[in-house]
Amino acid sequence: MIESLLIANRGEIARRIIRTAKRLGIRAIAVHSEVDADLPFVTEADEAVCVGPANPAQSYRNVEAILAAAKSTGAQAIHPGYGFLSENAEFARTVESSGLIWVGPGADAIAAMGDKINARNLMAAAGVPVAPGTTEPAADLDAAVAAAAEIGYPVMVKAAAGGGGMGMGVATDEAALRTEYDKVRSFAERMFGDGSVLIERYFPRVRHVEVQILGLADGRVVALGERECSVQRRNQKLVEESPSPAVSPELRERLLAAGVRAGEAVGYRNAGTVECLLVPREPDAKGDAAEEFFFLEMNTRLQVEHPVTELVYGLDLVEEQLRVASGLAPTFDPDALTPRGHAIELRINAEDPKRFLPGPGAVTTWTEPVGEGVRVDSGYVAGNTVTPFYDSLMAKLIVDGRDRAEALERARAAVAAFEIAGPKCNLPFFAELLENPEFLSGDYDTAIVSRMR
């Protein structure tokens, strides 16, 4: 097993990784920016190094500073968490060429999945369903118009190098496409340094369902169930649950098999997520309605929502990541995976609960809920400050129960007991959602938040 680990991240995910590292007797090393010096992940680490000022480009994305911290502290491995450098293939290569262990998939797999068009083509070749779309970038507006005419409107215009719900627009006709194409291309060039654009069929009513995969040290790829991620604002997730209330046993079998094929197609190792769109079909003459799914993208890292899978399967995915990186067998029998119960995660953000605009500030009150089936992965305590320099995520409230009904009941009680004062907070939104008939029915889609607003 790895003996010393540098966590190239911050906030709740850094704290989460440190917790597992300490349980396993691994020396945990934190890196932090100047404004994060007082956060819990810094004080809980065995050692901490300041890597620069608040600007992420000068700290958490500063490859030279992070590698220098690893060298000065004698770190054996680097865990990137999620965001920042976690899906940067060049960083992964640099870590390994520096003689360090990279806790994540290989750089080639990251690069292959980082380009949405290349990923689509690889998945199609592997027999994973993909939505109708372009097999190469739309080189200019005329090419985009021609592609959309062949695919059929409405279409989604996507940044090929994008991720995290960024760099996307919907066009219902050619006039809208002309506007969205220029908008997405400009955004992609500015944010990702790559203006390549993908045109793909857009489905007005869809669910967002993903498969957790784990590439083992012996080369096998296993699927650890699915997660429902359809409660979103601006294409970014707010709530996740497992198992998905929309997935039948037959559909689950197909989804998980596709997830495994996706991982095998790129020789995947470590934790990753295969994201899919689940599209309902109209009932046939017999009244039977089937559903089809399409590959959306692969996230080549640990997901924010990994705790719901941990609770349903009784695993510690960070530990499994460390074991794979160390060349060790998993803690579980891959041929005897047995999920149990139901888990729900709510992302507690420093944002307005109505318009979801960021609202950073000093934390004057922070009281976490406790009780059976309640878990909180947090990045802050009272006295800390949520700054405007990073993502607004403050904590993740995760609950589990014997079934969805019990998990929902525990979620309502936990939301009511969670007290945060200082920054703006979206807890009132979750109180509303957990009473919403559509959400409670389990029959909801990615537009549920817009219908609530």
TrEMBL record:
Which species is the source of this protein? Micromonospora globbae
Highest taxon, organism lineage? Bacteria
Indicate the enzyme's highest-level EC class: ligase
Name under which the protein is recorded: biotin carboxylase
Is ATP-binding among the key words of this record?
A: yes
Return the SUPFAM superfamilies for the record. Answer: Glutathione synthetase ATP-binding domain-like (SSF56059), PreATP-grasp domain (SSF52440), Rudiment single hybrid motif (SSF51246)
Q: Which residues belong to any copy of the Biotin carboxylation domain?
A: 1-453
Which PANTHER family does the UniProt entry name for this protein?
CARBOXYLASE:PYRUVATE/ACETYL-COA/PROPIONYL-COA CARBOXYLASE, METHYLCROTONOYL-COA CARBOXYLASE SUBUNIT ALPHA, MITOCHONDRIAL-RELATED
* EC numbers: 6.3.4.14
Q: Could you tell me which residue ranges the ATP-grasp domain spans?
A: 120-326
